[in-house]
Amino acid sequence: MNRGSAIVGMILCLLAGMGLARGVLRSHDHGGLHATADSSKGPVPASHATAKVPVDATDPSWGSPDAPVTVVLYSDYQCPYCSKVEPTLAGLEAKYGPDKLRIVWKHFPLPMHQQAVPAHVATQTAFDLGGNDAFWKMHALVFQNQRALTPDNFVAWATQAGLDGAKFKAAFESNKAKAKVDADIASGSKAGVRGTPASFINGIFVSGARPQDAFEAEIDKQLAAANALVAAGTPKGEVYPKLVEKNHSQKPEEKGAEKPKEDTTTVWKVPVLETDPHKGAKDALVTIVEFSDYECPFCGRVEPTIKELLEKYQGKLRVVWKDNPLPFHKRAAPAATLAREALAQKGMDAFWKAHEILFANNKALSDEDLAGYAEKLGLDVAKVKEALATQRYRDLIEECQAIASDFQAGGTPHFFINGRRLSGAQPTAAFATLIDEELKKAEALLAKGIKPGDIYAEVTKDGKAPPPPEKKDVGPAPEDSPWKGAKDAKVVIQEFSDFECPFCGRVNDTIKQILERYGKDVKIVWRHKPLPFHQNAPLAHQLTLEAFAQKGNEGFWKMHDKLFASQREPGLKREQLDKYAEELGLDVAKVKAALDAGKHKARIDADVAAADKVQIGGTPAFAINGYFISGAQGYPAFRKVIELALKEAKK
Question: What domain range includes position 361?
Answer without folding.
Answer: 278-460
